[in-house]
């Protein structure tokens, strides 16, 4: 590489004239290898200078913008950049906030596995800094990601860890926002399990009370806007449409006040959903179509599928076959994307969970074996030193072997307990236990595997509903044990019939039992 070519690159990357002339003289005086070393130094210097152009305040402002950008892929580009800048200028808060922004974008895009990885990274750097707030935020994010993938037990335990860790945060906006998110997480986990909406409502209302205590107006409005949207959905489930419209409208107004297009979209979505349930199709179409371009820009495939599905239903009722076909086709296309994404995400996270549990199991085993070995060595040392008796040494080894046998017996006993869980299946269903579906898979593996193989588009909630039908629960029983209305159960049955292409003349319970 000639000196002139190197200097051309230097000019391209922004070298100033004075510095350029000094290096031009230096480069002419050295051999090729030294030129490369100097060039490497130049690029390193220029990269560092670019990062130094940003102050922590400017980094914070860039990160704050990502939460209001509808295009989540664009938001990710910004948060990735701010993370690198923060690392270059050694700004820890910038790195932590950038990871939070990453997590928010990944959750919105339905990329739960990446959200979990970013949350683990956030927890790792926050723990090193002794930052309880961001450690708590990492747990909150992981709980939501696990819930979206249907790992409800894992989600509940992770949310409990967040609540426990939250006690270490000082009384300030960080504490109130964390507590609000934790109770919102509890509500979301229950909602995804089709639990009694009244229980969900209780947690949502507690969440709002914490968010109202946030002193920073912008943060308070953003959190309340998101939470009001959730509250509107719960009131729709309760078939109480007046507060549903009220809170959805408040969510939209606060989102508009803060120029937050995503929160505006959620408010509009709630209004469209409420008017749909009230049979006011014109109003429902109006609000859904306002929300639609925002969710399309955000690439929120889950919300888009809901809207396409509902708009298809509305136009079908109106007899407009052309528009009905358009939205139905869009819904099917998204459903295929969601099905593949959920399967991929679930498989990846399942493998990660298994590897984590396996790692913990081996760690405990190593500790146990290490403890046994340590005790054996210590005992052998004292035996040789004080007794020097072969008999006592032999007895000690026999005692250690007895301990190992006892541990094996304990493990066998635990295995028997797991097998005994088979008999608990019906009781788990009746008590709406969060572990019901995982137990069902063990009891009816053939049915479950055949169902997801033939109908891979079924969601976790729909699989749990199919499990109840397989157990021959009646409509009233399902409504009773899940604390929902009979009408809601019938609606789910009708949608399931359409999705599985089952004729209305066929008894759905019998179909499931014979499947």
From TrEMBL:
Report the GO molecular function annotations: DNA binding
One Gene Ontology BP term is:
regulation of DNA-templated transcription
Give a yes or no for keyword Lipid metabolism in this entry. Answer: no
Coiled-coil regions, chain positions:
109-172, 387-424
Q: Which windows of the sequence hold TPR repeats?
A: 225-258, 265-298
The entry's cellular-component GO terms read: cytoplasm
Q: Where in the cell is it found?
A: Cytoplasm
Which Pfam family, any one, appears in the UniProt record? TPR_12
To which protein family does this belong?
Belongs to the Rap family.
Would you tell me the protein name for this molecule? Tetratricopeptide repeat-containing protein
């Amino acid at each position: 590489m000639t000196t002139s070519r190197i200097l051309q690159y230097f000019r391209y990357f922004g070298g100033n004239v004075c510095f350029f002339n000094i290096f031009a003289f230096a480069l002419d005086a050295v051999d090729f290898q030294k030129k490369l070393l100097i060039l490497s130094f130049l690029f390193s210097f220029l990269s560092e200078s670019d990062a130094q152009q940003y102050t922590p305040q400017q980094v914070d402002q860039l990160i704050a913008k990502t939460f209001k950008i509808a295009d989540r892929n664009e938001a990710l580009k910004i948060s990735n950049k701010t993370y690198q800048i923060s690392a270059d200028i050694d700004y820890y808060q910038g790195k932590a906030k950038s990871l939070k922004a990453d997590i928010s974008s990944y959750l919105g895009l339905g990329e739960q596995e990446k959200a979990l990885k970013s949350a683990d990274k956030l927890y790792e750097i926050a723990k090193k800094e002794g930052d309880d707030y961001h450690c708590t935020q990492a747990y909150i994010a992981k709980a939501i990601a696990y819930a979206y993938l249907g790992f409800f037990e894992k989600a509940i335990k992770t949310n409990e860890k967040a609540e426990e860790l939250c006690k270490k945060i000082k009384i300030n906006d960080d504490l109130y926002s964390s507590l609000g998110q934790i109770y919102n997480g509890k509500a979301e986990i229950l909602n995804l399990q089709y639990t009694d909406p009244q229980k969900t409502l209780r947690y949502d209302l507690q969440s709002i009370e914490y968010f109202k205590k946030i002193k920073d107006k912008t943060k308070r409005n953003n959190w309340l806007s998101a939470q009001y949207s959730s509250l509107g959905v719960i009131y729709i489930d309760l078939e109480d449409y007046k507060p549903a419209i009220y809170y959805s409208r408040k969510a939209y107004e606060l989102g508009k006040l803060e120029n937050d297009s995503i929160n505006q979209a959620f408010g509009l979505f709630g209004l469209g959903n409420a008017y749909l349930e009230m049979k006011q199709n014109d109003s429902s179409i109006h609000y859904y179509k306002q929300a639609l371009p925002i969710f399309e820009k955000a690439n929120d495939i889950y919300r888009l599928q809901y809207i396409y599905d509902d708009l298809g239903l509305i136009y079908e009722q109106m007899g407009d076959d052309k528009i009905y076909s358009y939205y139905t086709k869009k819904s099917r296309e998204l459903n295929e994307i969601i099905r593949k994404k959920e399967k991929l995400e679930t498989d990846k996270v399942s493998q990660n969970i298994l590897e984590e549990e396996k790692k913990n199991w081996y760690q405990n085993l190593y500790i146990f074996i290490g403890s046994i070995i340590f005790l054996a060595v210590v005992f052998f040392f004292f035996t040789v030193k004080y007794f020097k008796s072969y008999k006592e040494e032999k007895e000690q080894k026999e005692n250690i072997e007895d301990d190992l046998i006892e541990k094996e017996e304990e493990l066998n006993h635990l295995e028997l307990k797991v097998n005994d869980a088979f008999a608990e299946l019906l009781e788990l269903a009746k008590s709406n236990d969060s572990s019901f579906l995982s137990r069902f898979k063990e009891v009816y593996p053939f049915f479950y595997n055949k169902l997801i193989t033939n109908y891979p588009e079924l969601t976790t909630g729909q699989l749990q509903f199919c499990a109840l039908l397989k157990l021959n629960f009646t409509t009233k029983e399902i409504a009773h044990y899940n604390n929902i209305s009979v009408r809601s159960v019938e609606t789910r049955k009708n949608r399931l019939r359409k999705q599985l292409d089952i004729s209305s003349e066929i008894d759905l319970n019998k179909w499931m039992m014979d499947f």
